[in-house]
Amino acid sequence: MAYCSQKTDTGLTEGILKTLHNQLGMCHRIPLCKIEEKWLALGLPLLRLQAIWTTGKFGYDAPWTHFLALAAAQISPTVSDTLALLCSLFTTDPEGSDPAIPFGLFTSLYYFLAAEIGSVPKSHVRHVIQHHAYNIQGSCGLISPRVFQHRMAPKLHPDQPK
After folding, report:
1. Which cellular components does GO assign to this protein (predicted)?
2. Which one, of 6, 13, 129, lies nearest residue 21 by Cα?
């Protein structure tokens, strides 16, 4: 079982997010009470859960991918790092490989994060998506951090250093 790290004020770690995903990720929408039960069992602060819930403007339940994206953003400094972490959480590839996810999932997560936390203009998001849609055609419709963090790829946030 993963334990809280004192490196962040959230108590969240990649290991804890992986544990939550393993426990709850089989459903598309998850009720708040179910997430809260697992969250508290892992010793995570209730206020942090409430902040994520408020940021996501979730009601009785939340789309799991959106909830996990906001939780991952709590421990990742950039949109690019958040998406890389999400790739490692959502991949079905063996551990140690470049964690690839379906391009449709990447697109959904990127649009959501850009709107909720990234303040990334929609025109920039569309440009990035179009670029990667063209470039992933030969990779079975999968995208990985190696692709979207490549030095020649467009940055996921226009203010991200080159």
Report:
1. motile cilium
2. 13
Q: Take residue 130 and report the two structure tokens written for it.
A: 């179009």
The encoded tokens of residue 45 equal 């602060």
Q: Where are the domains of the chain?
A: 1-75, 78-162
Look up the pTM and report it. Answer: 0.90
Query: What's the fold here for domain 1-75?
Result: Recoverin; domain 1 (1.10.238)
- pLDDT tens by residue, 87-146: 999 998 888 888 999 999 999 999 999 999 768 999 999 999 999 998 887 778 999 999
Q: Around Cβ 30, how many Cβ atoms within 10 Å?
A: 21
Residues whose CB falls within 8 Å of the CB of residue 151, separated by 6 or more in sequence, listed in order: 162
